[in-house]
Every structure is written in C-alpha cells, then in structure tokens.
Amino acid sequence: MIQYHRLGSVPPKHHVTHYENGKLLMEQCMTRVGFDSTYSILYFRTPPTDEFNVRAMELPGFCPIAPVERQLLHRRHIKTQNLKVEGDFLTARRTVLMNDDIRIGICKPNQPAKHWFNNGEGDECWFAYDGGGTLESIYGLLPFKKHDYVIVPKGTPYRLHPDGDRGTFLVFESNTYIDVPKQFRNESGQITMDAPFCHRDFRVPPELLRFDEGKHGKGPYPLIVKHANQLSVHEFKHFPWELAGWDGLVYPVAFNIHDYQPRTGTIHLPPTIHITFAGHGFVICSFVPRKVDYFERDGVRAIPCPYGHASVDCDEILYYIEGNFTSRKGIESQSISLHPMGVPHGPHPGTYEKSIGHDRTSELAVMCDTFKPLRLTAVADSVEDKDYHYTWVKRENEAMETSK
Question: Do you find a cis peptide bond into 206, omega within 30 degrees of 0?
Fold first, then answer.
C-alpha cells in the first residue's frame, strides 16, 4: 500500500518451489481488485486452509449492526467519552456511525487481546487516541504509538495489544480500501514531493510473528472473520499465522498524525487541504497545530475561523482529540460532531469574530467526509447530546445577553 517490503525467506521467483528444512512451504497470494492491483505473496509453514470447524458468533454493538430506524436531519454531537465498555480490542468495539461505504466506531479495550480477527469486508484504520502498543498480524509485529493511524488491510488476521491492555481508539472500517490519495502519487506510485507526508513517515512491520505457546496458548486456534455484516469463527488445529517470509505491497502500516505537514494560505483554505487517506466514498483528514491565515491589507484581515458552509454533497464528522477547537463551544476531547448534508453549519456564535488576529491554532482532530449520509447506531444514540443542534441559537442569545 505504501512501498515494497520484504521480511524473512522468499524464493527468487513467484510460484516456484520454496523449502524450509526440507519441507515445501505453501505460497499464498494476497491480492487486491482481483489480480489487477497491489498484492503480497506469503509463505506458510502450515497451510492457511487447515481448518476443521466453522461456527457463528455475534458481538452486540459491533456485528451484526444496524442503524437507528428514524433519524431526523440535524447537526449532532456524540459524546463517545461517555461510552462504557468491557473487553479486548475486538469485544470492546462499538460502531457509532455507518453507511454503505464506511463504518465508524470507538474501541476502549481494558483486557488483554484474546481474539484473532480478520475483517473480510474492507480495510481498517485505527487511530490511537491515548497510547501505543503493538499490532500482531500475519505480516509480523508493528509497534505503534500515541496518535498513530494504523492501517490494516482487508483479509489480515491480527490482534491489537495496547500498552497496559488499555486504550481508546477511533476505528474506520471501509467496505473497500483505505490508502494514500491518488493525487499524492506520481506515475511510478512514489509519494510526491508536494504531498503532506513522505515515504519515511510510514512505519512497517520490522519483524515476523513467531509462535510462542506461552503467549499464544495451545490449539485449537479460532479466527473471527467479519463479512457481509456477520461473524464466523474459523478454528485451526495448528497455529496458522507464523510465516517463513513474505514480500509485496499489501501489509499494515503506521503513520503518526504529528508527521502530517499542514498547509496555510493568506486566506482560509477548504478542509480538503487536510486530506490524509481516501477510500471509496470518503476521505479521512488530519487537523494539526499550524499557522493560520495571515492576509492583512488596508485594514482588511483574514478570518482564521472556518466560514459557515452548506456542503450539500457530504456528511462531515470531526473527532476532537485535544487543543482549542476554534469554531466550537461545548465540545470536549473524544466528542464526535456530525454535520450532515442538507443543513448549513458553521462556527458557534462569538468564535468567528474572536478568531481575527490569531496567528496559530492548537487543535488536534480527525475528520471524515462521506458522500453518502451517515446513520447513527443505537450505541451513538445512547450517548448523543440531544440539544446540540440548537446550541447555535442558544449561544447567540447568550452572546447578545452578555453584550448588553
């Protein structure tokens, strides 16, 4: 997805014999878009088809999941900081927003990672809100740190181990891919020099996964697979995820939001300048501390605060991490705001004029724009600030009262 990478032992050509200690290894191709896009080739000690049982499983709040039946059109504030959950990286996942292209969830694990999981519906992007850890996958071990994005390709068996077995994560699940936007690639696939990041910013698995009975236990070894909004548990007699080697362009990567290179203009630029990753029907954007708009001529000055706008083709969510959220009042860290297509939105009263003259913003947030309407789940409905849509009027009245 980012660049060619290789770990362990691979033969000189694809699809030829490759032995380890006299035993023929099983080659598996992990391909995208059939055989027309990126791929990796993996060499298994135990064939990945060595299953002996398949059974059903459900995780309420995650899978299967459905939107609320009725959703009026208005601006929303989902207070994910109020979500109380128990479990590991899988059983503590809760989906809060969804459409046909993407599902957006929160994960708050407080237990060691027990399960192996494979999302067969699409790529995932985990944002580490408050700590680091290790992603343990078929491609090896990938350490991650606070405020990292961790992209996990579709079809990857993995476990996520947050430091201290506790953490908070924002999770994007695509129905297709999550990747570097095409406009940031040249004709050879290299990240361009005017992109907001470079190849060196992305971290790859440095070592292969090695089986350890003390850490991985004794068989059978279950793998939970998500596909078509249902979970299946596939059981293996032998530990199936230790490879002799692999190479290719499909594997997990980590990227820290603080390595994103923000852009600034003389006047306020649209949120598209913050694009970090793209998928079918959505983009993921990074708002990081930066210099702000500095136009000043003949007494006319730039207004750094975002202008009001009616984005009639996109829903917009913001996940607030830390700092001063210039255009919002009453928003806290871990809040998610949803500003839907069809309803104009803009800064809270008082924030627009107050921003004039500021030369920096300290906000840190993750944004996602979708081209299909997002629907709330029952989980989101349970922690929604039902009064949020009306705060523009109420705060306008408060501002008027204060000025009297």
Answer: no
pLDDT digits (tens, 9 = 90+) for 77-117: 999 999 999 999 999 999 999 999 999 999 999 999 999 99
Whole-angstrom distance, CA of residue 278 vs CA of residue 367: 12
SS3 call for 401: helix
**Spatial separation of the C-alpha atoms in residues 44 and 395, rounded to whole Å:** 61
Q: Residue 107 forms beta bridges with which residues?
A: 93, 169
Rounded-to-integer distance, Cα 254 and Cα 252, Å: 7
Cβ atoms of residues 208 and 228 within 8 Å:
no
Of 362, 396, 152, residue with least CA distance to 251 = 152
Secondary structure class of 200 (helix, strand, coil): helix
In the numeric block, which tokens belong to residue 284?
């993921």
Helix (H) or strand (E) holding 399, with range, is helix 391-403
Question: Whole-angstrom Cα distance, residue 83 to residue 247?
Answer: 40
Tell me the DSSP string of 122-145: S-EEEEESS--EEEEETTEEEEE-
Cis peptide before 220 (omega within 30 of 0): yes
67, 112, 360, 361, 378 from 70: Cα distances, Å: 9, 37, 41, 37, 11
Sorted by sequence, the CB contacts under 8 Å of residue 169 that are 6+ apart come out as 89, 106, 107, 108, 109, 126, 127, 128, 129, 162
Query: Is 184:196 a contact under the CB 8 Å cutoff?
Result: yes
- Which range has the worst mean pLDDT, 30-34, 93-97, 375-379? 30-34
In what helix (H) or strand (E) does residue 215 lie, and over which residues does it extend? helix 213-216
Give residue 262's Cα distance to chain centre: 19
> Whole-angstrom Cα distance, residue 212 to residue 167?
24
Say which DSSP state 306 is in. P
Q: Looking at this protein, which amino acid is placed at residue 118?
A: N
Does the reported pTM lie above 0.90? yes
* pLDDT one-digit tens code per residue, 16-31: 999 999 999 999 999 9
What CA–CA distance (Å, rounded) separates 7 from 205? 8
